[in-house]
Amino acid sequence: MTKLNNFDRRYYLLIAAGVFVLLIVVYPLWQLFYRSFFSAAGFSLDNYLKVLSTPVYYRSLFNSIWVALATSLLCMIVGTILAFVLVRTDLPGRGRLKNLLIIAYSIPPFFAAIAWIQLLGPQGFLTRPLLQWFDWSSAPWNIYSAGGIVFVMTTHYFVLVFLTVAAALEQMDASLEEAARASGARTGRIMFGITLPLVLPSIFAGGLLAFIGALANFGIPALLGMRARFFVLTTSIYYALSIPDFPLATALSMMLVVVGMLPLLLQWRIQKNEGRYTVISGKSVHPAEIRLGASRKPLFLGVSIFVSLMSLVPMGSMLVSALLKYWGAPLTPANLTLEHFAYILQLDIARRAIGNSLLLALLAATMTMFVGVVISYLFVKAKLPGSRYLDLLGTVPYAVPHTVTAIAMILAWSPPPASLYGTFWIIVLAYLAVYLPFAIRTTNSTLQQIHDSLEEAARVSGARLLRRLKDVILPLASPGMIAGWILVFMPALRELTVSILLYSHRTETIGVVVYNMQDAGYSEVAAAMACVVIGLIIVGNVGLRRLTGGAGF
Amino acid sequence: MKTLTKIVSVSVIVGSLVCIAPGAAQAQGSAKGKVLLYTSVPLQLATQFADAFMRKRRDVEVELYRAGSTEVIRKLAAERETGGIRADLIWLADAPLYYELRDRGELLPYISPEAKHIPADIKDPKGYFVGARLINLIIGVNKEVIPVKDAPKSWKALPDFGKKVVMGNPLYSGSNFVQVATFVKKDGWGWFVRARAKDVAVVRGNSEAAKALAGKEFGLAVTLDYIVAGLAKKGAPLEIIWPEEGAISVPSPIAISRASKNPEGAKAFVDYVLSKEGQEFLVKQEVIPVRGDVKPPSGQPAASQIKFLPIPYEWAAKNASELRERFEKIMLH
Predict the structure, then answer these.
(1) Which residues on B lie below 8 Å from A492 (Cβ)?
(2) Does ipTM exceed 0.95?
C-alpha cells in the first residue's frame, strides 16, 4: 500500500515537471519550428530555400560553424595546457592565478569585445605604442575580422575548458600514474601516455561547452563582424528581424538550433553507452606534482603575463575608457574625468536596470534550481520511465542560442490571451528556459554522487516522499545546489542576448543599458556602467565564496 | 544546510528590497499622468530633455524607451501583433515611417499652438506629425587624418576616399535609411556600388561612425552634424563639411499615438519640444533648431542657410523593406 502510494506521488512530480518543461521549452520551440514553414505565400519551404539559395545566408551558416569549431579547438589547447600547469606542477601562486582566470570569465563576453577593441583596435591602447615602436603605418592585425572574433571568443570561453579539465585532474585517481612511475616511465611519457588520455573526455566536454557558447554568442560578432562584413547566424537573424523579415528569421533560427543540437545529441548518445556513473573514487593518493626546476621562473612569468592579459588588462582598459573625456582622447591627466561615473550613478535607468537584473537573476536561479532538483531526482534517483526524456528536453535549451529562445518566447507568449510581451514576465520565462539546463546538469552530477542506499534506508524505515526529499536528498545535495544556484545567478545578472529582444521601458537590464550606451556612441558611459557591474560581480563572487567555502563561480 | 539557509535569507531580503523599490516608485507615480515616449534620440539627451519638461509640468511623468530607429520599429510591429501600440509618443529619425503610421491610422492628429513657427515642409498639414529637431547628415572630417583642404567637398567625391570613409547602417539607423532613400531616388544605387568597390566601411549608426572618426580609425564619416559639433567642442579634431549637393536634413518628427491613454500629457510634451524653450535646450546640445526664431548653436548655420537635398518620404516609406534588403546585398557582403 505504502509502495503504491509513493509510486503515485512521484508521478505527480513527473507530471508537474513535464508540464513546466512543456510550457517553457517544448511549446515555444514548436511555435518557432511551425512558423518557419510559413511565408507570405502560406505553408511552404520558401524560407529555407531562401536561406540555402542566398549566398549571404548560407555563408553565415558556414561562418557560424567554422568560427565555433576554431574557437573550441583553440580553447581546448589553451585551457588544457593551463589546467596542466596550474594543477599538476609546483608553479608558485597557482591559487591566485586560478582566481584571476575565473574573474576573466566573469567579464561578460560583450564587455570583453569592447575591451579588446579598446586595446587592439586600430587606435587601441596597445596598438598605438606598438605602431610607434615598430614604425608601422598600420597594425598587421585587424580586430574587426573573423580572426578577431575567434580571438575574443577564445579569451572568454577557454576558461570553460580550463575549469572542466582542472576538475578532472584534481579528482583523478593517481594509482595508474604511480604504477607507470614505478615501472620506470618518465614524466613526459606518463603525461602523454596516461594522464592526457584519462582527461580526454573532460577536454572534449569543455570543448563542447566552448563550441555551443561560441555558436550562440551574439555580442562579439555583432561588435567585431560588421566592419569586416562578416556575418554569422546570430547576427544574420538580428538583421533579418531589422529588414523586417520575420519568417526568414525563424528559418535561420531553426538552422542554428540544428547546428547546436548535433553535438549535444552526440554527447547524449555517448553518455548513454558508456558507464555513466563513474563515481570518482576517494582521493587516497594525491597525484604527484611535477617539479619544474629551472623552468619554474620563466614559466611563472609567462603564465602570469598570459593570465593578466586575459583578465586584468581588459578590466584596466575598461576603467581607463570610463575615465576618458571622449574615446580617442590622448591619455593625459587633463583628459581624465569622473563625470561618466557620476552620470551613471544618478541615471534612473541604470539604477532600475541593476534592480531588475538582481531580481531576474534571483528568480531565475531559485526557480530553475527548484525544477532542476525535481527533474534530476526523477531521472537519477527515482528512474521513472519517461524521466530520461524529461531530462533531455530540459537540457535542449542549452543548445538553442539565446536569440532563438527569445524569438520563440515572443511567438509563444505574446498572442492573447497570454500577452506577456513587453512585461517583466516574458523575460522571466525566457531566463527560466535558458538556465534550466545549467540547473539540471549540476543537480544531476550532485545526485549521482549520493548513493541510492541512503534514500532506500529512509524509505524502508517508512519515510514518505516529501520527508525523504527534505531530510535525505536536499541536505546531501545542498552544496552542489548552491554551486548550481551561483552558476545560474552570475550569468543571469549580466544577461544581454535575451533581454535585448524582450525588454521594454521599466524592464531594462544591466546588459541592455550597457549595450544601448555603447551602441549610441557613449562608450565612456558604457565603460563606466560596465566597471560598476564588474565590481558588483567580483564583490558578489568573493562574498559567496566566503559564504559557501569555495563554491563561487 | 546552514549556508543554504543563509543564502536563501539573504536572497529573500535582497529580493524583497528590489521588489519594493519599483513598487514604491509606481505608487508615487500613480498620482501623475504617465506618458511613454519611444525615441531614437540619444539616451543622455532624451533623459535630460524629459527631465527639463517634467520640471515644468509636474503633473506629467515621461517614461523613456530608447533604441535605434529600426529597433523601435520592430518593437512597434511586435506590439501591433500583440494587443496594440503602447507608446504615447514616437520621436524617431526615420521620417518616412510617419507616413506609414499615418496611413495605418495609428497617429492622433494634433496641431500644436507652437507649430505655426515650424516651416511647412517639415510638418504634416493635418497635424499627424511635426518635425521636432533638424539632424543633418553631413561629411565629418578628422583634421589629423585628412587636412580639410584635401577632404571631399561633395557626396559624389566621397566614395573615392575608400577605406578612409565610414557610414552608418540603414538596417539600424533611421537617418542613414533616409540617406539611402534620398541617394537611390536621385541617382540609383551607383553611389553604393562604388562605395562598396572601394571598401567604404559600414558601422551600426551615426554615433559609432562619429566615435570611430574621433578615434582616428577613419578620416571621413557620413554622420550627423550635432554629434560632430559636440565632439569638436570636447576637443576632438573634427570639422563639418556641408556637401555641395546639399545636406540630408532629417526633421526627426514627433507624433502622438492614437492609442495613447494620456493624449493631454502627450500634447503637452509636443508643445514643449516645439516651444522656444525646448528648441533652445536642443541648441545647447548642438542641434540645429526647427524654429526660425531660435538661434542656431555657435559656429553652426541656421536652417534657412543650409542647402538641402529633397527627401522622398512617401516613396521611401513604401519601399522600405526593399531598400534595406538591397542595401544589405550591396554594402554588407
Answers:
(1) none
(2) no
- Degrees to nearest 5, angle at CA B58 with B56 and B59: 130
Q: Which of B63, B70, B214 sits opposite A326 (nearest CB)?
A: B214
Please report how many Cα atoms fall inside a 13 Å half-sphere around the Cα of residue B331, on the Cβ side.
28
Write the single-letter amino acid at B230.
G
Contact criterion met (CB below 8 Å) for A253 and A218: no
In angstroms, the CA A397 to CA A437 distance is 7
Q: Which helix (H) or strand (E) holds B7?
A: helix B2-29
- Chain B residue numbers touching A482 (CB-CB < 8 A): 3-4, 7
Distance from CA of A410 to the nearest CA of B (A): 8
Query: Which residues are CB-neighbours of A393 under 8 A, at least 6 positions away?
Result: A21, A25, A26
Q: At what angle do helices A55-88 and A233-242 cross, to 10 degrees?
A: 140
Torsion, Cα A214 A219 A220 A226, to 10 degrees, reads 120
For residue A417, is the peptide bond before it cis, meaning its omega torsion is within 30 degrees of 0?
Answer: yes
Nearest CB to B78; choose among A410, A519, A548: A410
Three-state SS for A212-238 is: HHHHHCCHHHHHHCCCCCCCCHHHHHH
* pLDDT string in tens for chain A (553-residue length): 445 555 567 888 888 999 999 999 999 999 888 888 877 677 878 888 888 887 778 889 999 999 999 999 999 999 999 998 998 888 888 888 888 887 777 777 877 888 898 889 887 888 888 888 888 877 788 899 999 999 999 999 998 889 888 878 877 777 778 888 888 888 788 888 888 888 888 888 888 889 988 998 888 998 898 888 899 998 888 888 777 777 888 888 888 888 888 887 777 676 665 444 444 444 445 666 777 777 888 888 999 999 988 888 888 888 988 998 877 777 788 888 898 999 888 888 888 999 999 999 999 999 999 999 889 888 888 788 888 888 888 888 887 878 788 888 988 887 777 778 778 999 999 999 999 988 887 788 778 777 777 888 888 888 888 888 888 888 877 777 877 787 788 888 888 888 988 888 788 999 888 888 877 777 788 889 988 888 887 887 777 767 665 544 4
Are the CB atoms for A224 and A144 separated by under 8 Å?
A: yes
Yes or no: say if A301 and A92 are a contact pair by the CB < 8 Å rule.
no
What global pTM score does this model have? 0.79
Side-chain-facing half-sphere of A33: CA atoms under 13 Å? 9
Place of cell 541536505: A475
Task: Test A549 with B75 for CB contact under 8 angstroms.
Answer: no
Residue-wise pLDDT for A460-485, tens only, equals: 888 888 888 888 888 877 777 877 78
- Helices A27-35 and A246-273: crossing angle in degrees, nearest 10, is 130
Nearest to A544 by CA among A475, A487, A495: A487
Q: Which amino acid is at A165?
A: V
Contact B211 A523 (CB under 8 A): yes
3-state secondary structure of A24: helix
Chain B residues within an 8 Å CB radius of A229: 202, 332-333
Please say whether the beta carbons of A63 and A120 come within 8 A.
Answer: no
